Amino acid sequence: MLEQLRQFPVFANVPDEQLQWLIDNGEEQRINAGTVLVKPGETVNHLTLVLDGRIVIDTGQNGPEDDIAVYDKYGILGALPYSRMTSIPNRIVAESTSQVLQVHRDKLRDMACLHYELTEVLVQQMTTRVRNFTRYTQQEDKMASLGRLSAGLAHELNNPVAAIVRSAETMKAHLRATPDAFKQIMHLQLADDKVDIVNEQLFKKLDQKALQLSLLERSSYEDELTDWLDDYGVDSGNLDLVGPLIEFGFTTDDLNWLLDQVGPDNISGVTSWIVNNLVTQSLVRDISDASERIGTLVGSIKNYTHMDRGAGKTTVDLGEGIRSTLTLLDHKVKGSKVTVMLNLANDLPAVCGWPGELNQVWTNLIDNAIDAMPDGGELTISSEVEHHNDGLTFVLTKISDTGTGIPDDIRDSIFDPFFTTKEIGKGTGLGLDIVQGIVNHHNGSIKVASQPGHTEFSICLPIN
């Protein structure tokens, strides 16, 4: 056994008598493949040295692809000196028939007092494990955020893309009717000054914003315009005249003015020509609005990921990051019937930090707030400058929701790794742990206050 322990690279400089202490205080076991050493949530009571075989920590769901950590021959896992770990949310299982040496955690206190070199290398193992765990949790949270944002971005892009395709197809069909409208125009007898007057009136209407009418108001306008067009024998052919006229604010008074300018013989052709231009303008406006929406979304994701900047510390506009995050989560806000109140001071100073990390903070906190209001509610985000007595200046950002609140008995646990109140498959328990780590990385602080109907997270970040 001593020779086997000597094969562990970490024990290269540990005296034989200290390794012998491990042997004397441990228990050698042969574990069959598939045996579960620790179930999810159970207490981890032993320091485990893998003498042969393979031990893995996994989620216990989908096979090898769900392995979180793998310990082959000469691997060390489980309880370690000074570690605060008592249990894990995953399982520890033997992937193959394995031989292990296990030491109960109650013996580790004596080891720390008696054997410095052995304790030192095991503490180093613990710090390595913490670094690996932190890297893993951050990567998991980034992937979870990426998944949420990708789904949201795809959903948000679908609407403007569909609008562009729909408008383009309508434009094709509309242009096929242009030759008939052109024939009518060619038969008109209008002086140049009358044409200029009609054009001037048309462009005034094109520059106006679309009217916002109730159903009752729109129905009333439709009846009035339809009766006017029938009274003066305006032939619409296959073209809907009334809809575009209402959209651009034409009334019967406008049509009477037009009749005075062009006369009864020309009114049908002129009206059809005007409507033809209105329809074209409407389709172009729809395509322009949809394209602008796509541009806004692309700009938001670019700002969110900071893909055009380096990975180092830089000045960060918190308001810009919060707005970009809200844009990318807009589909979830609308789907949850949540009202967003955004109160960001106009004179917010920039803070010094890592933009990508801070955007993760906003994503996790806003996402959690929305989840806390499944039946709708109000999400309030505010930021303001705060001056402390020590002369330092901070930006205080508060994110609050009107959900059910956080029970008192779990409030102290919400920042713990893997702690979650969400259903299985809906929460990893990594979000708030990552949030706290990022805020600490920026030398800031995060606090939570909660009662039924009001939960508020306060994030205080220094400017420098």
Précis, in short:
By secondary structure, the protein is of the alpha+beta class.
Question: What does this protein structure show overall?
Answer:
GO terms for molecular function: phosphorelay sensor kinase activity. InterPro entries: cNMP-bd_dom, cNMP-bd_dom_sf, HATPase_C_sf, HATPase_dom, His_kinase_dom, HisK_dim/P_dom, HisK_dim/P_sf, RmlC-like_jellyroll. By secondary structure, this protein is of the alpha+beta class. It has three domains: 2-137, Jelly Rolls, CATH 2.60.120.10; 177-288, no CATH class; 306-462, Heat Shock Protein 90, CATH 3.30.565.10. The protein has 14 helices and 15 strands. The chain has helices spanning 2-6, 16-25, 108-114, 116-176, 178-186, 192-207, 215-231, 242-247, 252-262, 267-305, 318-328, 330-335, 355-371, 431-441, and strands at residues 26-31, 36-38, 46-52, 55-58, 67-71, 76-78, 91-94, 98-104, 314-316, 338-344, 351-353, 377-387, 393-401, 445-451, 454-462. Strands 10-12-13-15-14 form a five-stranded mixed β-sheet. A hairpin with a 5-residue loop joins strand 12 (377-387) and strand 13 (393-401). Helix 4 (116-176) packs antiparallel against helix 10. The protein is elongated. The chain starts with a helix and ends with a strand.
